[in-house]
Design brief:
single chain, 4 helices, 8 strands, binds iron/sulfur cluster
Length: 138
């Protein structure tokens, strides 16, 4: 899983928007990795209307966001989508884009996009496949 180090410019130091009101979707492998840390999937996952398992928000922040330290509590084990953000895949346009909401979006280069896009597209395809076969709760 090649990581993408966000080349942030300091504009997200105070509030990490990517961890605020998150709709980050998890693969089965993401959930298994996080479960192995001792977390209960019923606590940190919610099912979206279209059948995807997403991170739960608590008081407007991701379940795993530590408001005191402003850090991710499971950073080394965070979902694959979190590792690629702010690079996301636009299904309608069939291309990778930098999320417009990210305050550091201008620090992401076209070289970054090219390097990571194949993995982001494959991740989205996997999420869609898994959602098709997921019955019941996450
Ligand atoms: S898992 Fe971590 S990196 Fe991902 S949205 Fe939550 S706090 Fe942010």
């Amino acid at each position: 899983m090649p990581p993408f180090e966000c080349n942030h410019d300091g504009s997200c130091e105070e509030v990490r928007l990517c961890c605020t009101d998150t709709e980050m979707t998890l693969t089965r492998a993401d959930a298994e990795r996080i479960n192995a840390l001792g977390y209960d999937r019923e606590e940190y996952l919610v099912k979206s209307e279209d059948g995807f398992c997403q991170l739960r928000n608590i008081n407007g922040n991701c379940y795993f966001y530590d408001q005191k330290t402003k850090l991710c509590k499971i950073y080394d084990h965070r979902p694959e989508g979190c590792r690629y953000y702010p690079i996301v895949y636009n299904v309608r346009k069939k291309k990778c884009v930098v999320d417009y909401d990210c305050p550091s979006r201008k620090t992401v280069t076209s070289q970054d996009l090219r390097k990571v896009c194949k993995n982001v597209r494959e991740l989205v395809e996997k999420l869609m496949r898994e959602a098709e076969y997921r019955d019941g709760p996450c």
